[in-house]
Amino acid sequence: MNGLAEALRSFAVTRWVSRKSRPAFERWQAAALRRWLDRDLPLAPFYGKAPHHLGELPVTDKALLMANFERFNIGGVSARDAWAAASADGRLGDLTVGASTGTSGNRGLFVISEVEKYRWLGTILAKAVPDLLWRGMRVAVILPQNTGLYDSARKSRRIDLRFFDLTLGPEHWRAALQDFAPTVIIAPPKVLRYFAAAGFRLSPERVFSAAETLDPVDRPVIEAFFRLPLDQIYMATEG
């Protein structure tokens, strides 16, 4: 499997779709949903067969998903095995396993294939930094836990991605972060605000708040420090 080719394909499709008119997009969306209902959904044991319409699916919540985790993922991975893998190297055979940071207060799990991992990479790049990709990027990801999702980005010659472990505390890696001089920063809002208060020497071209809910009082402080608009990235493991 050529991962970077899959990422580029996903990048191109996402950019192409974003340029469609509303009626054209809705036609494309309806066709994509139909394929998903017919082809992909039946592979998950919880659902069994393809419904005629999306509205026919049962309403679920995180508690139900976690209690029946092995029936919701195609690989049949149990929540117990997934938590163990997520706490180790994030690998379970050919699958990547990870956990959410728990913005809602309850952490969730995800299990994805190599193809899905690169597809995610292409999509997120197309939505977040399409203008920076061709010039190359230095991306600093500052989170309490690393995830295999970002490993795909490290294999691109245009992206230099480094993870900074939030559990160690900012002063542990402040010098390394400043020397890295990231062009893109992804971090929780409280960390971005700390950078402002502590006067970190950083001049990124794009800043993203992630993992935690952004308090409206923090936005102007962060934007004034970086002299940039603050964007947000959130990923739901249930998706």
From TrEMBL:
Q: Which superkingdom?
A: Bacteria
What InterPro entries does this protein's entry cite?
A: ANL_N_sf, CapK_Type1_Caps_Biosynth
| Name of the protein in its database record | Coenzyme F390 synthetase
Which species does this protein come from?
Answer: Mesorhizobium amorphae CCNWGS0123
